[in-house]
UniProtKB/TrEMBL annotation:
Descriptive protein name: Tc1-like transposase DDE domain-containing protein
Domain of life: Bacteria
Organism: Fischerella thermalis CCMEE 5268
C-alpha cells in the first residue's frame, strides 16, 4: 500500500561553495626580480546545500564541508525529515554526486 500524502510540493535544489582565497594581482618588477607580496597557503571553504519551494518561497539550507554523494545523501535525509507529510519533488542539476554509485 502506498503512503498517503497531504499535498505535493515542488522544490528546486542547488549547492554552492563559499570560501576565503587571497586575490593576488600582477606586480611589476625588473626582469629577473621576483615580486614580493602577501599570499596564502590555504584555501578554506564550505558548501551550502539548499532547496527552495518556488510556490511559497519556503527554503531549507544546510552547511557541509565538501560536496559528494555522502554529504548529498545526508542533505536528502534532513530534507525528508523536515517535510514528512508531503510528497516532495526535488529538481536538481546534472552534478555527478546526485547519482547513486
Amino acid at each position: 500500500m502506498l503512503p498517503q500524502y497531504e499535498n505535493m510540493r515542488y522544490f528546486v535544489q542547488a549547492e554552492s561553495r563559499f570560501g576565503l582565497k587571497t586575490i593576488e594581482g600582477r606586480k611589476i618588477t625588473l626582469a629577473g626580480v621576483k615580486p614580493v607580496g602577501q599570499w596564502q597557503w590555504q584555501f578554506k571553504a564550505f558548501w551550502l546545500y539548499g532547496a527552495v519551494e518556488s510556490l511559497t518561497g519556503e527554503s531549507l539550507f544546510w552547511q557541509f564541508s565538501h560536496v559528494d554523494t555522502e554529504c548529498y545523501q545526508q542533505f536528502l535525509n534532513e530534507f525528508a525529515a523536515c517535510y514528512p507529510k508531503s510528497l516532495n519533488v526535488l529538481q536538481v542539476d546534472n552534478g555527478l554526486f546526485h547519482k547513486a554509485k
